[in-house]
Amino acid sequence: MQGSKLYVGNLSYSVTNEQLEELFGNHGTVKSVNIIEGKGFGFVEMSSSEEAQKAKESLNDTNFNDRPLKIDEARPPRPRSEYNSNRPRRDFEDNRRRY
Q1: Rg (CA), the chain
Q2: What's the distance, CA 77 to chain centroid?
Q3: Are 55 and 7 in contact (CB under 8 A)?
Q4: 5-76: what CATH class?
Q5: Which residue has the higher pLDDT, 78 or 28?
Q6: Among candidates 72, 76, 60, which has minimal Cα distance to 23?
Q7: Closest CA to 72 of 50, 44, 47, 48
Q8: Does residue 23 contact residue 95 with C-beta atoms inside 8 Å?
Q9: What's the whole-number mean pLDDT along residues 22-46?
Q10: Percent of the residues in the chain that have a pLDDT greater than 90, as a whole number
Q11: Which letter, b or e, does each residue of 35-64 get, where b requires 16 or more Cβ atoms within 10 Å of its Cβ?
């Protein structure tokens, strides 16, 4: 594993940053925790890539709040332009309803 930041998926919406920090703290030093509210996933940054690997191996597919955690190395965010690059642009001038 190259980085020390982990993606943590399949979280219950009631999970808090403090709960994740405590869970991952059993596997090394946690630098930061960021749960994406209302999405069911978050990110945990460990102090080293070795600790991140250890936490991933120990916690992936384990039950936490009655849900199996999905843990993987976090990928860098995509630029905003990539989200819409595959969609054709709509020209609203041509799609107006005429009554």
Answers
A1: 19
A2: 10
A3: no
A4: alpha beta
A5: 28
A6: 60
A7: 44
A8: no
A9: 95
A10: 70
A11: beeeebebebbbeeeebbbebbeebeeeeb
Phi then psi dihedrals of residue 58, to 5 deg: -80, -35
| Separation between Cα atoms, residue 33 and residue 16, nearest integer Å | 9
Written as one string, the DSSP assignment of the chain is ---SEEEEES--TT--HHHHHHHHHTTS-EEEEEEETTTTEEEEEESSHHHHHHHHHHHTT-EETTEE-EEEEPPPPPPHHHHHTTSPPP-TTTT----
Cα 58 from Cα 42, distance rounded (Å): 17
Cα–Cα distance between 56 and 54 in angstroms, integer?
A: 5
Residue 55: name the closest of 15, 33, 23 by CA.
Answer: 23
Amino acid at 34: N
Six-digit token string for 94:
């041509």
Asked whether the whole model's pTM tops 0.90, one would answer no
